[in-house]
C-alpha cells in the first residue's frame, strides 16, 4: 500500500507543479504569485494534522518574511537617499557599485 500511495502522491505533485508552471507562463504574475504561498499554508496544515507538529517561532518568522516581502509591490524600491519611491521609474533597480540598471523582460 505504501508504494501505491507514494506513486499517487508523486503523480499529484507532478501535475500540480506543471499546472503552477503553466499558470506562471500564461497568467499575469501579480495575480498568480499570491497563490504560490498556499503551499506554505498546506505544509503547516498537513504537518499539524499528520504529524502533530506545530511550527516553532522561527518558522513563523521566516514565513512572515517570505510572505511579507511578496506582498510589497514589485515597483517599490528604495532610493539612494533611503526614501521610499513607490512608482517612479519602476523599471530600474539600484545596484550597489554601478548606479542603476534597467530591467528588461519579465522577471
Structure description:
The chain has 107 residues and is mainly alpha-helical. It has a domain at 8-58. The chain contains four helices and four strands, in the order H-H-H-H-E-E-E-E. It has helices at residues 2-26, 29-32, 38-51, 57-70; strands at residues 77-78, 84-85, 92-95, 99-102. Strands 1-2 form a two-stranded antiparallel ribbon. The protein starts with a helix and ends in a 5-residue tail after the last strand. The model is unreliable at 91-107 (pLDDT under 50).
Would you count the extended β strands for me?
Answer: 4
Widest sheet, order of strands: 1-2
Helicity, as a percent range: 40-55%
Low-confidence stretches: 91-107
What can be said about the biggest beta sheet? Answer: 2 strands, antiparallel
Shape: flat
Strand content: 5-15%
Number of helices: 4
Give the radius of gyration. Answer: 19 Å
Features:
107 residues, flat, 4 strands, 4 helices, two-stranded antiparallel sheet
Amino acid at each position: 500500500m505504501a508504494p501505491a500511495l507514494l506513486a499517487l502522491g508523486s503523480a499529484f505533485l507532478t501535475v500540480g507543479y506543471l499546472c503552477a508552471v503553466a499558470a506562471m507562463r500564461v497568467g499575469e504574475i501579480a495575480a498568480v504569485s499570491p497563490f504560490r504561498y498556499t503551499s506554505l499554508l498546506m505544509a503547516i496544515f498537513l504537518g499539524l494534522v499528520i504529524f502533530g507538529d506545530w511550527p516553532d517561532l522561527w518558522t513563523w518568522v521566516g514565513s512572515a518574511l517570505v510572505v511579507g516581502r511578496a506582498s510589497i509591490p514589485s515597483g517599490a524600491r528604495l532610493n539612494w537617499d533611503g526614501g521610499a519611491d513607490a512608482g517612479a521609474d519602476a523599471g530600474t533597480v539600484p545596484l550597489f557599485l554601478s548606479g542603476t540598471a534597467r530591467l528588461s523582460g519579465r522577471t
